[in-house]
Each structure stands twice: as structure tokens, then as C-alpha cells.
Amino acid sequence: MAAGCANGAPSPGKSSRTELTFLAAAPPRVWDPAFIHDPLDQRIIQQICPPLVSINSADGNLTGILARTANLNEDGTRLRITLAHGLTFSDGTELDSAALKANFERWQKIASTAATPSAIDTILADSASAPLIKSYKTPGKHVLDVHFARPCFAFPDALTHPGLGVLSPAAFGKDSTEPVATPIGAGAYTLEAKATKTAPHREEANTTRLKLRAEFRSERESAAASASATHSESASQGSPDYGRDSNHDGGVPLRPAPAEGKAPATIAFIHSSLSATPAQWLASKHDNPMHADVVDAVAAKEQKEIAQAGLRVMHRDPFSVVYLGFNHNDENLKQRAMRQAIVQNIDERQLLKDQFPESTLSANGYTPASLGVQPERPAIRDEKATTDLLKTAKYGGENIPIAYPTGVRLPYFPLPELTAQGIQKQLAEVHITTQLKPMHWDTEFLPALLEGRLTGLFLFGLHGLYRSPHDMLARLFSGPRPLCNARLTDIPHRLDAALAIASASQRRETYRNIETDLIADLPLHPLLLPASALGLSSDVTNYPLNPYLEEPLELVTMR
Question: Which of 97, 180, 236, 400 could form a disulfide with 144 if both were Cys (CB 3.0 to 4.6 A apart)?
Fold first, then answer.
């Protein structure tokens, strides 16, 4: 498991620097967690309005952020959530069961009816968009019971999804299914300034700035002190199935508050268009307009430059997958023989050079290896000759585009252009003609991916948002807007059915069988299980690294 802090002991007393700076790509286009698909924008919004719980990077168990418990009853049809006491939103209103109920009602409406692609469609609705939630009860000021229309045993894990960031109901617009304009959350930070553009160096217009809430630390300490009272309140409701969770004690530990005077007072995300190296950003003085304390998605060759500058690189364990997508409306690519010819001539090992950290692996399936449901063997390549496959597909040398994102550093995809170039070169060796199609990440590629408008071949990745295979498989192959447009008749229904399986081992076996069948049909090709790396300036002494990208920046310490 990746280490959770940077090397170097923090100095005693208060930090001398109070601002933490991040190198970022384009500014967020949406400020509502339920509608953010970009993992970089999710990092920003999670500091303002985090979800109820997170995943502990040390042991994989749940850690409370806003909630003290999140338990299912025996038949998987009722979720009981107990909030930590004494927490408020940044507008001063209390985070209680009424506010949480309003969030769940909004999430359910968005997942079932919203016209705009949301990030939570596959959590709160099935493949036919049927709502998951049937009703609610509030047996206590800090206790909410969510009653499901059907069993859903994966839901407690899904509560870590950044799209389920809790907002103050005051932030909702008249139409609650529309994205909020300004997030009001119960996180450590508030939004002080929104960037409106990218620019080479730091300036006011290209800087998103967050400010530490003055009351945050005292609220967290109060919540921790009242944890035993929270446990007593939930237990006193008299439910015989109280306490059903992975910890067996009815509760999860709350995330600790930062030490006094240690949390960064402000966080600045610099949305830069400059093509400088990460080492240049990290090594410059902190008062330089071209300085950053943290640069994420550092490629392998860039890590060497950072090390040569005497700075540190931290590595996350893999919890992402990079895919080669096929548009199944293409006359060539809709034929399995053509897809097979492409796949068996891609050497993933060559794609790793100078791009991904050494711990990156070839992918056998569509989900991270740590979830334990990838097929036992990579049954992807046939022994049939490429020439025979191309003849079966009636491929006549037509030019096939390869779309890939530009203008962005994604944690799972540091240098997409080099990956696309590598695939183009490998396919040219067997006379498959391709044309590179660079597309700007936030204005072209991501909207086209979400709306199913990418043609030919396309390179993209997914980061796991919660610890269940259902997360990625449903986003790829189910719901109203699957990322893969293959015509799969039974996969969405099998994914729906898996949620109702009470046994964790049987659920895993079901997902493994689904992956095995998908691999045989090749609707898209899983390329890599990428590790990710970030570089730190010499001023950062502690960074809360997490393979799930849920990294609370109030726990960063600086010299």
C-alpha cells in the first residue's frame, strides 16, 4: 500500500507558510459534485463538500468524514446513517438528518431524471433508470434511514463516491436537478475565488482559491468527543440489525482534525497553460508566479528530473484502468475480428516506457486488480493470424482515427499523446492505418466521451470512485449513458442483479464472470492498470496520499 505521507519531519509549532499551491489544468466548468466527472475537479470540490465517508488508504476500511455510521439491515433494503454531531455548513446552517435527507432526495432526482449527464447515474438508479430509493425516515436529529426499493448491498461503499458530496440545501436552485452555481459544504474549506481562464503563470484570473474555515477544527474535535454519544443515539433506536458493517462495532472512526496551526490557511490551484516541466514548477521559489507545491500525474521520465532537483516523488497504488475504446457504429470496428486484430498487435509493455511508474501493470480486465474480480488469465488474444482477421473483417486500409485528450495531466494518464503515438506505430507495423486526433480535455474530449460522440478508436481512463467492481462496470456498460456503445443485451441486467447478492464472495464471483464474458467479446480493450505519482516542493513535509484520490488537504503540513 502506498505511503500516506511525504518524507521529512514537520517543524514544531506553526507552519511558516500558510498557502499550498497546486498545478492544475483548465478551471472547473461545473461546481456541483454530482455533475463533476473530472478527477482533478473532484479533488477541488471534495475540500469544500466531501462525501459522508472515505476509504482509509492503510486498510481499505471506511473512515467517517461527516458520518459516524453507515449500516445496512440484513436484507440490504435499509441504510441507516448516523451523522457526526456538531458539524455545520459554511453558511452556518447545521448538518442534520433533515439536510442529509434533502441531499438524498436531490441525488435520486438527478440520477433518475436529469438531462445533463451526472456522475451518480449508476449509483441511485438501475440500468433502466428505475429509482433505488423508496422512502426516508428520520428517527433522530442526526439519524437518517434510507429505504431502498430493492436490495443494494454495495451501497455503503458507494457513499465514498465524490459525486455524493453533501451540500447545504440553501445552495440548491429552483430546479434541484440543475448544477449548483456555488458549492456550500461542510468540508474544511470554502470557495473564495473561481478561476475564469488558463494562463502561463499565476495571476488572479487563473487561480482558484480555497480558504480554511475558522470553525472547522473545533467542530471536528467536538464531533470526535461526542462519538460515543452518537453510538448511543443510534443504538437506542432499537433496531435489531444495528451494527451491520465491516467493522462490526456499529461505527467507523472519524477522520482526525488537523493539528492546531498546521492546516494550510489557503489553497491555490493554478490553472496553467505553460508547457514547463514539473521539476521547474516545484523547484522555483514559492513567491515566483511559476511555483507549485504539488504537481500530480508525473510521468516516469519527469520523476527522474524531480529527483535530480533534490525533490520528492510519491507513488499511489493502482486503482485506475486505461482503456482503448471502439466506436461500434464504425463499419470496421463493429466487427470483433477487426477489434481482435487491433488488440493482439498492441504491446502494453512498450507503452509504459517513460510514461507510467514502474508499478504500472498490463490489465487483464476492466476493473482494478485490487478488487479481485479480473479474469484469472488474460484470455484476450487469439492465435488467429492478423492477416486472417483483417480479411474476415474486410478491412481495406481505411484510416481509423485515434482520439485522445490534450491540455491535461490526469493521475492515471500523464502523457496521453505518447500513448496514442505508440499505438499508432504498433498498428502501422501490421498495416492498420490510423490518424491521431488530439482533442482538448475539458471542452472536446470529455463531453464527447460522456455523450457517446467519439468516433473510431479513443483512449480514456477511469479512476475507481468506490471499492466495488460495480462502479466501473456500470459506468462502462450500463445506465442511460454507458461509455461503451456496444450493444450488450444481458450485461446491464446482470449488473443490476449483482447488487442484490448478500454474500460478498458470491458478488465477486458474479462480477468476475461478467468480466470474463466481456473480455471474450471485446467491446473495449483494457490496456493498463496505471500507478500514479505526484511531485512535492521542498516546503511540503506531509501529504495525505491516497490511492483512491480522496486526499484531505487540511492534513498537508508545510515548513
Answer: 97
